[in-house]
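Duplicate of #3305? Posting structure anyway:
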């Protein structure tokens, strides 16, 4: 599970895509750590697209929200915001090699952002990798209440519209469980992954 790259090493995008296709993804100990290690969890988090749940309070927020939702309009600003430390999150695992590699994947059409904007200011968002009919959620951020949650709702709507079959969250948290996230064993997940990779869905445009 842990084989670090040398400091400053760039993650090849072809290796990164092969890793995702086999159920593996990279992380770093912190945003300032120059090394990357590979993770293949025994228990994987997913949100079943047909079991996605929008809490009642969020439904109300969606109806009155003044936020403009955009897709892929500023991917680099989104991943940069996800990498920032905040009062509620002192450090993140998004280091420079990860930011560089995922930005390259974005230019290749394999990495996407969902963004919440207010008056031309980015106030929330998320990003992830798309491969076959799978979307691998990576990280999200909020600078306003419910901004990232609203982005998640719009992400799921798009995945359903575009024929995606699997939304991978890597791990589950109490926050994600409110939306229907569940844990699945590695063997079950890898079968779901193989089935969802046997096809193609287009996230954008």
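Output from current build:
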């Amino acid at each position: 599970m842990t084989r670090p790259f040398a400091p400053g090493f760039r993650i090849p995008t072809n290796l990164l895509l092969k890793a995702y296709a086999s159920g593996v993804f990279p992380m770093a100990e912190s945003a300032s750590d120059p090394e990357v290690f590979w993770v293949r969890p025994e228990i994987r988090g997913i949100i079943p697209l047909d079991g996605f749940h929008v809490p009642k309070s969020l439904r109300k927020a969606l109806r009155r929200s003044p936020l403009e939702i955009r897709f892929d309009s500023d991917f680099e600003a989104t991943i940069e915001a996800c990498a920032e430390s905040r009062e509620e999150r002192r450090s993140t695992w998004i280091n420079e090699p990860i930011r560089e590699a995922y930005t390259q994947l974005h230019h290749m059409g394999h990495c996407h952002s969902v963004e919440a904007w207010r008056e031309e200011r980015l106030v929330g968002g998320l990003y992830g990798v798309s491969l076959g009919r799978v979307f691998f959620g990576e990280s999200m951020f909020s600078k306003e209440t419910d901004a990232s949650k609203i982005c998640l709702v719009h992400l799921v709507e798009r995945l359903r519209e575009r024929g995606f079959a699997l939304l991978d969250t890597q791990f589950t948290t109490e926050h994600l469980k409110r939306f229907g996230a569940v844990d699945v064993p590695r063997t079950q997940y890898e079968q779901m992954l193989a089935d969802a990779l046997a096809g193609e869905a287009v996230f954008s445009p």
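Confirmed duplicate; merging threads. The chain has seven helices and nine strands. The two ends are 35 Å apart (CA to CA).
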